[in-house]
C-alpha cells in the first residue's frame, strides 16, 4: 500500500488519540447500543468498520457478535496500535483506503462508521464503494457524526470555542458540520435512509471528565492558556451541547 496514505502518528500521539476515541465512544454509547439493536448486529455474518482508527468500535463489535469483523483504516500506525491492543481477538485489521475497498461486490452484510465521515475527503466515491461491496439489502450505518456548527458552550470563551474548534478541523481537511449532512449524503447515493440525532445538554457536574477531556484537547490545539485557565474556574457553571447525528442506509 502507498505509504503516503498513512498519517504515521507518533506513539505518544496514538495513546492520546486512543484515550480520546474511548471517551468519544463513551459519550455516544447509549445511541450506539440502540442502533446495534436496530441493525440486529448479531444476525450479520460479515461486518466492516471503515476508519476504525485504534479499534475501539471494531473491538466492541467483535465482543458483541460472532460475526467476521474487519477494521479498515488508511493510517498504518493506528492499525498497528489496534492490532497490539486486540492481539487475542478474532478481528482482521486491513490497511487500505475507503475509496477502494478490498472486498468483492455484494460480499458484506453491514458497514459501520463512527466519527468517520467527518474526515472522509471523497465521500461520493466512498459511498459508492460501500454500495458496491454491500449485499442486496445490506446496511451502511453512520453511528455518530458531530455537528460542530450547532455546538454551544457556556461560557463561549474568547476566542469562541466552537469557532476555534471548527477552524482547526477545517484546517485539517475535516467537515465539522458533517452531522447534519449525513442523511442527505446517504439518501443521494440511493440508500433507503433513516436518520436521527441526539443533542444532550451536559453540565460539568454531570460529567466532569468530559470537560477535562475538552480542556485537554483545547490545550493541545493551542487555545490561549490564560483564557483556558479562566474557563476552568467555577466549573459548576459550565455546560456544552453538541448534536451527534446517526444514519442507517439500506441498499436498494
Ligand atoms: C476520528 S477517527 C475515528 C476512529 C474510530 N472510528 C473511533 O471512533 O474510535 C477517523 C479515522 O478515519 C480514518 N480515515 C479517514 N479517511 C479515511 C479513508 N479514506 N480511508 C480509510 N480510513 C480513513 C482516519 O485515519 C482515522 O483513523
In short:
It contains nine helices and ten strands.
Entry keywords:
globular, 252 residues, 3-stranded antiparallel beta sheet, 10 strands, binds S-adenosylmethionine, 24% strand, alpha/beta, 9 helices, Rossmann fold, disordered N terminus, 7-stranded mixed beta sheet
Task: Explain how this protein is built.
The chain has helices spanning 11-27, 29-39, 56-64, 76-85, 123-133, 161-171, 182-188, 208-220, 225-232; strands at 46-50, 68-73, 91-95, 108-113, 134-146, 152-154, 191-198, 201-203, 239-241, 244-251. With 252 residues, it is an alpha/beta fold. The chain has a single domain (3-152, 173-200, 242-251), classed as Rossmann fold (3-Layer(aba) Sandwich). A 7-stranded mixed sheet has the order 3-2-1-4-5-10-7, sandwiched between helices. A 3-stranded antiparallel sheet has the order 6-9-8, with no helix packed on it. The protein starts with 10 loop residues before the first helix and ends with a strand. The model is unreliable at 1-6 (pLDDT under 50). The site of S-adenosylmethionine has 21 residues, from helix 1, helix 3 and strand 2. S-adenosylmethionine binds at residues 21, 24-25, 51-53, 56-57, 72-75, 78, 97-99, 114-116, 119-120.
List how many beta strands DSSP finds. Answer: 10
Trace the largest sheet across and list its strands: 3-2-1-4-5-10-7
Number of domains: 1
- What is the CA-based Rg, rounded? 18 Å
CATH superfamily: Vaccinia Virus protein VP39
